[in-house]
Amino acid sequence: MYQSESIKKNSLHIYFFCVLILPSPFLNYIGLTGMSESIIILILSSPFFFFLYKGKKWVILSILLMLMICSITAFYYKDIKLIIINFILISYLVLHNILNHETLEDFVDLASNFFLVMLIFCWVGLIYSLKGGLPTGTIINPDTRPNYWYLTTFSNVRFGKLIRPSGIYDEPGALSFFIISIVLLRLYLNKIDKKNILLLILGCVTFSLAHLLFSVLIYFYIHKRISFKSKVLYDIVLIISIIIFFLVMFDAINALVLERLKFNSNTGRFVGDNRSIQLKAVFHFLSENGIFWGAYGYDNVFKEYGTIGENPLTRLALDGLFVSLPYYFGVLIMSIAVFFSSKRMLIFVMILLFLQRPYLSSIGYSAFFILFFRIAINELQNNKNMFFFVK
After folding, report:
1. Is the distance from CB of 11 to CB of 45 less than 8 angstroms?
2. From which residue to which does any coiled coil extend (predicted)?
3. How many domains is the chain built from?
4. Domain that holds residue 140
């Protein structure tokens, strides 16, 4: 239990900052690398872990096990740095210990309001760009691509006057990922209200196909759990929103969504389908190099096999089996939980999120991977009190 209200608030603010603010490329732009951000997470969370709550044994054992497994790959490549390749994931494991059920609920509420405000700013930035507004500033993303500031939002994607807003993040897909994750947590905590629909609808400003797919799946989940009156109201709001969205933003939807769904008879693929090419590339790499040791760096894959993108096999190709074992183990546990949970649709979407964004040890993403993994464990043990959040 928390010893005071101030400690509770501090833990909430620390968790919020580490999970949703640190992923912003602006911090990387001013000199904070992934390693330095991990150190910040450890410094902020360690007092809670070691002194207030004396750290859970499963966290310490998980960290030791990861270090031991990674040391196999480090020994193979004779590179001691590979032992701490999952350092970001380790730092979030420590951070996760400051959560209890109450703090998780407070975090989800705070994050929901945070993203509602951010999405409104995204729409303002989109309208500003459509009216001919030019970027008012530029930073460089960690992947070296420029990220432009359009009055109230970042965007690294522009077609004429049309942008895909990304809020404070490096790309629109990241913003969509965090929004969907928060909505999933809201629903898991039985927060079934209008705010979920609002987040999903406003989140369409990212023009992400994945966002649309996840939103449809989540909407069906919500639809089954509300009254008939609420169903009619939600359906009317949804239909009106779609009509307005299409009428006002048809050119944008056509360029960024509908055009990508057209089938190209010459290539035998949809126009926007680059995943199949990337999957072929990663299969080619793995068939020639095996699954155990990985590429020892993305450039080693790209030079010979081209881009392998973000897919379920990316971690295996880049890091090898031993380093990526926590990712595949987590996905396996979540997959098993789908068959035993009453909220299987939510866990299924959680799996899909990380299959198309397999970020095992990335700032922000790792926190949600751990949260979803713990939810899956909780569902398997069928504890209605969410035991693993209670200190």
Report:
1. no
2. none
3. 1
4. 116-263
Distance (Å, whole) CA 142 – CA 163? 20
Sheet holding 146-149, edge to edge: 137-140, 146-149, 154-155
Q: What's the rounded mean pLDDT across residues 50-74? A: 79
CB 378 within 8 A of CB 342: no
Give 154's strand partners.
149
Where do we find the tokens 């905590």? 189
Scored b (16 or more CB within 10 A) or e, 26-55 reads bbbeeebebeebbebbbebbbebbeeebeb
Residue 4 in tokens: 């005071």
Positive or negative CA dihedral for 98, 62, 351, 24? Answer: positive
Q: How many CB atoms lie within 10 A of CB 155?
A: 23
Q: What is the pTM of this model?
A: 0.88
- Residue 333 pLDDT exceeds 60: yes
- Say if CB 330 and CB 205 are below 8 A apart: no
21 assigned to some structural domain: no
42 inside domain: no
Q: Hunting for tokens 């480090």 — which residue is that? A: 74
pLDDT recorded at residue 386: 43
Q: Mention every residue, 6+ apart, whose C-beta is less than 8 A from residue 26.
A: 139, 168
Residue 259 belongs to some domain of the structure: yes
- Distance (Å, whole) CA 56 – CA 220: 37
Residue 155 corresponds to which tokens in the numbers above?
């965007």
What's the one-letter identity of residue 158? R
